[in-house]
UniProtKB/TrEMBL annotation:
Native organism: Candidatus Accumulibacter cognatus
Single Cache domain span: 34-108
Mitochondrion found in the keyword field: no
Record bears the keyword Isomerase: no
Signal peptide limits: 1-21
Cellular component terms per the entry's GO annotation: plasma membrane
This protein's encoding gene: mcp4_6
A Pfam family the protein falls into: sCache_2
Subcellular location, record wording: Cell membrane
InterPro entries given in the database record: sCache_2
Protein name per Swiss-Prot or TrEMBL: Methyl-accepting chemotaxis protein 4
Record's keyword terms, sorted: Cell membrane, Membrane, Signal, Transmembrane, Transmembrane helix
Length: 184
């Protein structure tokens, strides 16, 4: 009798685990606002610490990885990935020729968006951490002002099938206006 109860509880736990893994809660999914805040904080951190801070962005369990998102750092001028916590195989490699399955040059678009005065959003296909398949990713990119280094940008993205680029532009506009979105 005790064995059947234990087996029943184990089955229930396994079933719940499969359901929970298949449908992450909102608490496990990064928002557009969090992404913009993290990227801007990362750009400030790089401005203050300089190139010595690059290593912090390669840590899979570091402060630049949260929920289902992470910050990555790249050099548009030198065509190199500087730091990527989920894909260390990309660090030091050329990036401007990387395309998604639709043929979109991901980093050419990110470099262009990051040079906008407020930064910008780029939509592309990319593997979501833990999903094992390509997902729709929209990354926010901005320039990092580092002494003696030009072309450095910082990005992070959200995996969201429903949000539109015009909605993300409104988020960015609101967050860039201190009267509408006071600094924290």
């Amino acid at each position: 009798m005790k064995f059947a109860t234990t087996l029943g509880l184990m089955g229930l736990l396994l079933a719940c685990g499969a359901v929970c893994a298949a449908a992450p809660s909102e608490a496990d999914v990064g928002s557009a606002e969090e992404t913009v805040n993290k990227v801007r904080a990362a750009a400030r951190f790089l401005h203050e610490k300089g190139p010595s801070a690059y290593a912090d962005f390669n840590q899979k369990d570091g402060k630049w990885v949260w929920k289902d998102s992470y910050v990555f750092v790249y050099d548009c001028r030198k065509d190199r990935m500087i730091a990527h916590p989920m894909r260390p195989d990309l660090v030091g490699k050329p990036i401007l020729q990387i395309t998604d399955n639709a043929g979109k040059y991901i980093f050419k678009e990110l470099c262009k968006a990051g040079n906008e005065p407020r930064g910008g959003w780029v939509e592309y296909s990319w593997p979501k951490p833990g999903a094992g398949r390509l997902s729709r990713k929209i990354s926010y990119a901005t320039t990092a002002d580092i002494s003696f280094a030009t072309g450095i940008q910082v990005s992070a993205g959200i995996y969201d099938e429903g949000i539109t680029l015009p909605e993300l532009a409104k988020v960015l506009e609101r967050m860039s206006d201190p009267a509408k979105y006071p600094a924290m």
